[in-house]
């Protein structure tokens, strides 16, 4: 009678090792012949099926799970035959590990398309039509702090809508959707947030006042990056364009306006670094 030992926590009869395929044993098969046919060490095959290296426990599985009915000539072990029911063992699939493919040279990182900075605006309104002029220095928000790209831009044009008064004040500028500053040349303005007394982001823009009149240190640049990312999120700015947001109470005079603004953007200087 084959030597058997019941495992402490036996695997269920329907256990299938991961990444394996079933094999129906037949007359003439044994562990060594099946392992050789699949180009693997014999104990790798056995352990994959039963998670044990104890021959007595393997014999228990061969009778209980494979359904072997014939023993070896010495009577110590079960052997494979076509009469075993269900007669199934599992062959683990070989996983070929290949080293990662490398491409010589440097793969350029995708450039950020978000810019922001501070500017100074002078605008005056008649009742229906007015003029506006803005100069600002903006920075690429996604650049590494050691190589921050910057650009000076000017927006000069007209705006339509009811207005009253005049103002000279600080303006927060966001340019969204441009990898390079030169791409902003000739861009026309759209619906403006230009309300010097109140804006949709009034509370947020008051935080911009902490930057002062210019972004002239790395700490201010990091704060600008944080505030810009929050402005994009809170205002839902997804469309490509150049946006101007007057900073509440940062100017002189009273300027209430609402309407459509247009004017060409001109980039007249580019550089690198803060400031």
From TrEMBL:
Domain LysM: 23-55
Xref: Pfam families: LysM (PF01476)
Region (Disordered), start-end ranges: 1-22
Entry superkingdom: Bacteria
InterPro entries the UniProt entry points to: LysM
CDD domains in the record: LysM
UniProt name for this protein: LysM domain-containing protein
Lineage, top ranks: Bacteria, Pseudomonadati, Planctomycetota, Planctomycetia, Pirellulales
């Amino acid at each position: 009678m084959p030597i058997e030992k019941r495992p402490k926590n036996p695997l269920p009869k329907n256990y299938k090792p991961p990444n394996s395929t079933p094999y129906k044993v037949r007359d003439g098969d044994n562990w060594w012949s099946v392992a050789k046919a699949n180009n693997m060490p014999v104990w790798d095959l056995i352990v994959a099926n039963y998670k044990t290296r104890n021959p007595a426990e393997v014999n228990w599985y061969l009778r209980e799970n494979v359904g072997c009915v014939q023993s070896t000539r010495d009577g110590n072990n079960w052997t494979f035959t076509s009469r075993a029911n269900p007669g199934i063992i599992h062959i683990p699939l070989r996983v070929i590990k290949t080293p990662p493919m490398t491409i010589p040279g440097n793969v350029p990182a995708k450039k950020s398309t978000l810019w922001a900075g501070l500017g100074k605006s002078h605008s005056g309104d008649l009742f229906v039509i007015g003029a506006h002029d803005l100069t600002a220095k903006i920075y690429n928000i996604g650049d590494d702090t050691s190589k921050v790209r910057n650009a000076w831009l000017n927006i000069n044009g007209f705006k339509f809508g009811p207005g009253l008064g005049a103002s000279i004040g600080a303006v927060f500028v966001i340019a969204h959707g441009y990898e390079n500053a030169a791409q902003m040349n000739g861009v026309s303005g759209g619906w403006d947030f230009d309300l010097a007394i109140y804006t949709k982001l009034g509370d947020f823009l008051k935080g911009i006042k902490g930057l002062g009149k210019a972004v002239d240190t790395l700490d201010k640049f990091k704060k600008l990056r944080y505030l810009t990312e929050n402005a994009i999120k809170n205002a839902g700015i997804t469309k490509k364009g150049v946006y101007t947001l007057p900073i509440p109470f940062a100017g002189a005079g009273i300027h209430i306006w609402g309407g459509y603004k247009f004017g060409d953007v001109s980039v007249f200087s580019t550089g690198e670094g803060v400031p």
